[in-house]
């Protein structure tokens, strides 16, 4: 049936001979196996094996359009980041589900990229749970679907994206007890474990990266990409291991490859911007951060990096506005992870000579961590600029207690002592 066929960008299949659109008769297919969808899916797999991602993407879309129950095709599109968030939503809205399979629309909506507002994403999960309870109440299917490993892994991925690492780690820990070989869950579990300082469940590459043996880490990340060229975390790790040793050209090369292979993932673009910022190419960094923002407008890290680059470009008012955007996209209360961000905002207010606001944010940073030299020295300097020499001297001493040989604080302490006299 599909021997001489071609597919367009929207996943529509045409007869290669006469150019007519091929309509799939879903009712005429076996309920268990839709032959047309299976052939489209196999073509997608074949093109994927040939590294022809453009054709693979089109045939995967054709497969799931032919049969919305072809979960494997949707999984390939999502896991390989072949579609942007908007394209995923458009594809989902184009699928035609039978009445008894209507709940699948909600299920699929929980699997696609979670770049919407927190309330929108939470509503998706809640809607699915309600639909399942309403459709199959009284059967064992309720707990089966609500505890579906793929769905739970997606929820864990969402928690990680929102920087709710403890929630993420607790969810993935329980999930891995049920399914120790769930790849997606394992990846999110490892990422959350790293953020929380945990030392278990690390694959070899991540382990070497954590102990700063970057050459060894690269060796294992490279092996991972050789085995599976569409494995996005390995490409990101490969680039990060170069960036950690300030080998910018190699890091950029890995990030460019990742950006080409995974156009729906914002991380390669974000890390490229970070690398440009490290080399003080701030305008280029700003461009890449804006591209990352266009792909994922809900990641607080993107706005944080835009804030940092604005600060370095001495656009302090803009830096303050980007920080406000950062706060708006952090769904939970601030933790110690965000302490440097709060300190830098205080620096920006100080540069704008808004000393009262600067002091307020320095003090807020101290509620997150009391081990930052930058916080105490910035607070001392702000009091000094206000003419409050007593408070300035007190905080210079606190800063020097953390780092006795700090030249700036030592010199400014002497100046403050003279000014007070």
Automatic annotation (TrEMBL):
Asked if the Swiss-Prot or TrEMBL record annotates the protein with the keyword Cell division, the reply is yes
Q: Does the keyword Cell cycle apply?
A: yes
Start-end of each TPR repeat: 198-231, 339-372, 373-406
Which is a Gene Ontology cellular component entry for this protein?
Answer: cytoplasm
Q: List GO BP terms, alphabetically.
A: anaphase-promoting complex-dependent catabolic process; cell division; positive regulation of mitotic metaphase/anaphase transition; protein ubiquitination
Q: Which domain of life is it from?
A: Eukaryota
Keywords, alphabetical: Cell cycle, Cell division, Mitosis, Repeat, TPR repeat, Ubl conjugation pathway
Which SMART domains did the record assign?
TPR
Q: Which InterPro entries match?
A: TPR-like_helical_dom_sf (IPR011990), TPR_rpt (IPR019734)
Q: What Pfam families does this protein map onto?
A: TPR_12 (PF13424), TPR_8 (PF13181)
Could you identify this protein by its name? (rape) hypothetical protein
Species assigned in the record: Brassica napus
